[in-house]
Amino acid sequence: MHENYPNGERPGPLILIAEDDPLRLQSLGNILKRGTYAFITAMNGRRTVEKLTERNPDVLLISGELDGTEDPDVRHRITSLCETQGTAMLVVKRTVPAGDFLHRYSGEAIDIISEPVDPSDLLRRLSLHLSVRTLRRELAESREQLDLETESRLNLIRENAALRKEVNRKEETIRKMRVTDPLTGLYNYRYIMDHLSRKIAESRRYDAPLSIVILCIDHFKGINAHHGIEMGDDILVSAAGVIKELLRDSDIISRYSGDEFLILLPHTDVEGAYRTAERIRCSIESLSWDDPLNLVTISGGVTALSGQSDVDPQEKSGHLLYRLIMYADSLLFKAKTGGGNRIEKE
Q: Do residues 243 and 316 share a domain?
């Protein structure tokens, strides 16, 4: 068992890191040390259950692919213990296929962080979750006091209301963080996958077209290597702004991965989606950049569901979702290997 207590003492908050990869475990531990958080570790699902039971940590920081959590009973015990003890659960997502990952960990109480983990974002989330846990304890104590001290009931009711308001405010911030990319302000992977499942179901039910577009900044790794990460971040933010301006209110855009955007276009066939993707490509190509970066381009893949007639009614939604994304991604790969700065459609 590994335990780390800053300054040789255990402070109030205790974090449990559940990770079976030593390098990732060390990286997460270094981030927590920067925030002066005490932490303990577990390297499989069984040990995670034991540590949750024995130590009652404030936050569980768990790998989405932790060894042993493929067993549904282990996952159920982990989530049940977290809910019972009020332990916040932050799941670090690696590269698990969408359907499998969402099936493994889902629920309103679970926060999801994608790799590579942004240290500042992780520490901010921990601070908010710990603050909510502390406020909940104070709220519980206040409620007990209300029952015992009738003379000061009015003042305690006011205090209770103020605490509830603060809890709601911070929980709303956490809810927004769960579905928002911190850099671009767009929806994140978790949000888009949830809504893609719903939109596919609507397409099947109402026999309406639904298009999926995956866009990727061309040569993005080279831009980061030669012009710096700050320039790369500026490009992502600018591209996100361009894409958002060219979409309808009913369309949904997310930052799907580091340099990729995934767009859902309800009630849009593949030709309409292709025209939209082409407008985005031309607009990004026309952006002006300071020397020595003169040109930024984007490539994309477009696929669509035509409605009920386009799918096997026996095909499960999760499999169809994964198949559509893989097909759009293969078209994106075709566009990039064909020279980039182009859109490929089915």
A: yes
Residue 122 lies inside a defined structural domain of this protein: no
Residues designated as active site: 259
The residues near 305 (Cβ < 8 Å, ≥ 6 apart) are 200, 203, 204, 209, 210, 211, 311, 324
By residue range, what is the domain housing residue 55? 3-117
Q: Are strands 210-217 and 298-305 parallel, antiparallel or unpaired?
A: antiparallel
Q: Indicate whether 85 and 113 sit together in one domain.
A: yes
Q: Which residues contact 180 (CB under 8 A, 6 or more apart)?
A: 186, 187, 188, 191
Question: pLDDT at position 136, please?
Answer: 86
Higher-confidence residue: 1 or 6?
6
Which pTM does this prediction carry? 0.63
Euclidean distance between CA atoms 103 and 79, whole angstroms: 13
27 and 137 co-located in one domain: no
Q: How many domains does the chain divide into?
A: 3
Q: What helix, strand, coil percent values describe the chain, rounded to 5?
A: 55, 15, 25
Bigger pLDDT: 155 or 206?
206
C-beta of residue 46 within 8 angstroms of C-beta of residue 38: no
Integer Cα distance of 57 and 274 in angstroms: 50
Same domain, 326 and 258: yes
